[in-house]
Amino acid sequence: MDGDIILYVIKSLSNGDLYVGICKDLTKRLHEHEKGKNRYTKGLRPWKLVHTEKFPDWQSARDQEKYYKSGSGKEKLKSILVP
Q1: CATH of the domain at 72
Q2: What gap in Å lies between CA 22 and CA 15, rounded to an integer?
Q3: How many structural domains compose the chain?
Q4: Which of 3, 12, 16, 37 could form a cystine bridge with 32, CB 3.0-4.6 A?
Q5: Are 33 and 41 in contact (CB under 8 A)?
Q6: Domain of 20?
Q7: pTM score > 0.85 for this model?
Q8: Which residues are CB-neighbours of 73 under 8 A, at least 6 positions away?
Q9: 15-30 average pLDDT score
């Protein structure tokens, strides 16, 4: 077991795009997004954290990340995020 792996979803405040990622250190990773250290998220700053999930290992987090990036997964994610 790798310890807690965090799947996170951030939303661009400039255009509403969602970005799904996984990491071990959420604070550090969010700071990297805000500083423009990710090619995709750099031009869509600022970002707001809108969802997190914890997983016991990297593979299960990666499987969920892949699902949320699929067509049906995107729809599921949108339904989770709607208040």
Answers
A1: 3.40.1440.10
A2: 22
A3: 1
A4: 37
A5: yes
A6: 5-81
A7: yes
A8: 66, 67
A9: 96
